[in-house]
Amino acid sequence: MSEQNMETFIKTPTEIAIEGLQAQVKELQEIISGLKIHDTFTNLSPPPPKEKEQKEKKQNSQRQIEALQIENSKFKFRIKHLLTALDKKDEEISQLKKYMK
Questions:
Q1: Are 40 and 63 in a shared domain?
Q2: Which of 25, 50, 58, 99 has the fewest CB atoms lying closer than 10 Å?
Q3: pLDDT tens across 11-31, in order?
Q4: What is the extent of the structural domain holding 75?
Q5: Within 10 Å of residue 4's Cβ, how many Cβ atoms?
């Protein structure tokens, strides 16, 4: 075996430790560069809505809720009167049936 080949097989503990630390440094550098890329993409996300926009949306939602509640009340009123009218018609029909017998 040549002297160079012997050197690659025989390493001191210090050399082994240095190689291990160098490998760890490379891994950490890769992790850091990955984090920098991630941070760049997160900063590109749209900014959160402003307070004024949030208040406007909330007010619009509140108005829609109130309009739907009013509409619901009107429908309930109409249904109640339709049911009352149906009951009256049923009563009239039952009375007519009594007279026909």
A1: no
A2: 99
A3: 888 888 888 889 999 988 888
A4: 54-101
A5: 7
Q: Are residues 41 and 63 in the same domain?
A: no
pTM tops 0.70, yes or no: no
Residues 59 and 41 reside in one and the same domain: no
Give residue 24's identity as a one-letter amino acid code: Q
Count of residues for the chain?
A: 101
CA–CA gap between residue 37 and residue 40 (Å, rounded): 5
What Rg do the C-alpha atoms of the chain give, in angstroms?
Answer: 41
Interatomic CA distance for residues 76 and 84, integer angstroms: 12
| Residue 63 shares a structural domain with residue 92 | yes
